[in-house]
Structure formats: structure tokens, C-alpha cells
Amino acid sequence: MRLKLYRAPTVPEAMARVRTELGADALILGTRRVPDGVELTAALEPTDTNPPPPPDRGRAAALAFHAVPDRLRGPLSFGDLAPALARTLPFGELPLGAQPLLLTGPPGAGKTLTVVRLATRLVMKGRTPMVVTADANKAGATEQLQAFTRLLGLTLTSAGDPLTLSRTLAQRRDGAPVLIDAPGTDPYDPAQSDMLRGLTAAADARVALVLPAGLDAAEAADLAHAYAINGAEFLIATRLDITRRLGGILAAAEAARLTLTEAGIGPGAADGLVPLTPKFLAARLLLTGIPRHAN
Fold first, then answer.
1. Which of 76, 86, 184, 295 could form a disulfide with 107 if both were Cys (CB 3.0 to 4.6 A apart)?
2. Under 8 Å between Cβ of 272 and 264
3. Please, what sign has the CA dihedral across residues 82, 85, 90, 95?
4. Phi and psi, residue 260, nearest 5°
């Protein structure tokens, strides 16, 4: 704040000098009589010498292409995109430690393949996870997961209900990571939601939502919110290798405050899953062509 004293024979004369030098926005902080007239203390707030830059038209076009919701476009329109994403959305790592991790999501989202990829990552790091399938109803689901786990030297356990799951986890080795492949569910169906919560409680598990990219933003946000009510904390985005528009993933994370963790970018078990970081997501959002050029 800029302060200045003005002396003049009368108050109107002092005020005139203030307006001439400091302008109409000047504030009068005080007046007092002095031997030769009056003294005014005036102040002027400094102007912003570094106003924010205008929105980048290229950025705006990219966000519109990806169908990013309007409520997110403002915070993502200024400055470097990666830091803007980090300020706007939650990012983090999946908890692959002592507490089991249960993967849930709509049918066909890619839960089983994501379990395989996470198990492969753990084995390559010298850790031996316990892999459990709770998806006894999907045709071929157990056989598919069993084939992959056999290649990794792991034993697949089937536990389709909370009681069996609890008994299964009682046999785990101390500290071994646990990956649970839950059935694909309709989060709006009370019976299926109760089943999912029962599995989660029986395992004392953290819950990650596996959601394919490319969904309508409003639908993705509604799904994320419904799964969050059923315990989901983390978000794994799949199908980024065949999806061009990612607005649905941003909408889902923002609507339910789900932590963005991993991105499925290809068919490989060892290299088809990568950390979903602000830098990675910024690169993909600025890409409006074929997805493979970003990887």
C-alpha cells in the first residue's frame, strides 16, 4: 500500500491534490489540523503488475475435445497443465501393502486384466501377492485369471462370498499383498451393492474402482459417486490405448474425489499399466489425435 501526506490551506484543496496525484481510487485514512491549514493521509492499493495471462485457445480447444466438464475447465485453463491438474484432482499410488486391495467396477471394465498387471508388477519386484477371485459368476473369468497366475508362479484362490473370503485371507502369509478381483456390479442395484460391501468388510480391504475411459462425463461421474458410496477410494482408468477422449475420467475423479492411480495403456501384462500422474494426464489431454502417439 502506498501512503502519502498532503498539506493545503483547506480540506477541498488537499483533496484536489490527492485526486490529481493518486486518482479517484485513493483512500483518505485521516485528517488533522496543522499550523498552516490541514494535513491529509492518503493511501492507494498497488495495482497488479502481473495480471493472469489470457486463456490459451489451444488449451481450451483440447479440453473441449476431451469433453472435460465446464466446472473443471476454468481451473485447468491457466498456467502449466500438469501443476493445474495436481491442484484440481487427487493423485496418488495404490496401497499394495498389508491391507488387501479389492478391485471393483462395472462389467467389462478390465478388472481381471488389471489384477494380472498388478500381480505381475509385484512379482517383478520380488513380492509374492495372494490373488483371489470373487467373480464366480462370469463365464471364463476364473480360468482366465488362473492361466495368468500360473504363468507367474502364483496360486489362484476362489472365494465368492464374504465368509469364504474371510477364511481364505486367514491363510495368507504375513505381510503378503492381497489382490481381490470382485465381480462386475451394478452400483445402483441394492443387492449387488450389499454384496460388494460384504466382500469389502470381510476382507477389511481398500477399494479401487476400475473404470474405462471414453464414458460420457456425466455418466462417469454418477458411476464414480455410486461406487464411492460403496467404499471406492481409488480410480484405475483403463482402455486409454483405444480411447481418445478422457473427460469422463476427470469427471469421475472430481465428482467422487477418487484418487487417480493407474492407467491401462495396452494389452501387455508387464507394460500395459502405468502410473496415472499429472504429467502423464496432461500429455494425454493435450493430445487430440490417435492415442498411441502419446505413449
1. 184
2. yes
3. negative
4. -75, 125
How many angstroms from the chain centroid is the CA of residue 14?
58
CA-CA distances (angstroms) from residue 26 to 3, 29, 142, 220, 226?
Answer: 10, 9, 75, 51, 54
Q: How far apart are CA 133 and CA 142, in angstroms?
A: 7
pLDDT < 70 positions in the chain: 1-2, 46-55, 137-141, 289-295
Q: Which residue has the cell 478391485?
A: 103
Using DSSP, state whether 230 is helix, strand or coil: coil
pLDDT computed for residue 2 by the predictor: 67
> Which cell goes with 68?
472435460
Helix, strand, or coil (residue 224): helix
Helix axes 81-88, 278-285, angle to 10 degrees: 120
Answer whether 55's CB lies under 8 Å from 77's CB.
yes
